[in-house]
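**User:**
My hope is that you can spare some time for a protein that puzzles me. This is the protein in question:
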Amino acid sequence: MSDLPLADLRQDYGRDALDRQHLSDDPIVQFEQWYTEASACREIVEPNTMTLATSDLQGGVGVRIVLLKGIDKEGLRFFTNYESHKGVQLAENPQAALLFFWPPLERQVKIQGIVEKLSISESETYFHSRPRGNQLGTWASAQSSVVENRAALEERLAALETQYEGKSIPLPPFWGGYLLRPTVFEFWQGRKNRLHDCFRYRLEKSNWIIERLAP
């Protein structure tokens, strides 16, 4: 058995509290409020970092970190390779979950929903807003596929730099955006003695039902 003192690692929370009277009736508004506070916290470098969980119809699951790139009344937006492991799973099973964890604020937000692809025009607009090196890197990497070595990736990138020197880099047909349309939000605030505050919003006939959950 490992000698790592994992069983002794624990943190007691108590920075803040979360009451129903302080929650917005709209989970998007509530999320934007918490996100704004996370963005203002100097200890949080990338507040838009989120864990994306996906699965296929055979029960296989996947999880990884992606970046939130937009949010509005429709849902949350992110971009990735359609042929990656997550892209393949989303094509088979569009149900997914997101998790934001902001330790300095002792907060996390879990979001569940249905994912759909964004339009080509929206994906293209975002693609061309990225640094040129990132655009080339997208073409160079067949994400989630086996690669012989690092040198093969760098050689592919160098060839692309030559190919597109002085030219606009087109949107790859295998890359673009997704919109997660939320059906569930859970807002979690750490509290003392593990009696955390947790509220769930669930969508029912176009209305958001708000419920306190046991931690």
Q: What stands out?
A: Strands lie at 49-55, 61-67, 70-72, 75-81, 95-102, 107-117, 175-189, 197-204, 207-212. The longest strand covers residues 175-189. The two ends are 30 Å apart (CA to CA).
